[in-house]
Design goal:
The protein has 77 residues and is α+β, with helices and mostly antiparallel strands. The chain is built from three helices and two strands. It has a two-stranded parallel ribbon with strand order 1-2. The chain starts with a strand and ends with a helix. The protein binds zinc ion. Zinc ion (ZN) binds next to loops. Zinc ion binds next to loops.
Amino acid sequence: MVAVFIDRCFWHSCPEHSAAPTTNADYWDPKLARNRQRDADNTATLQSAGWLVIRAWEQTPPEDIAAQVAAVVVARP
Ligand SMILES: [Zn+2]
């Protein structure tokens, strides 16, 4: 089983394209931190249930993601 997430840059804090909002930082900082924590929790929960988890950023070309999925499926024992 393979779970593939395509994470949006802003909502998931992409290191290349996301900067913390400067307005309403009191709202956005904890909100984005919760998103990152939820991503980590979801990944850990799926992995502990035996799933292979692939997380890609929205800027990743679809063919690269497909190649990644193929590689993990082929490599899986
Ligand atoms: Zn990005």
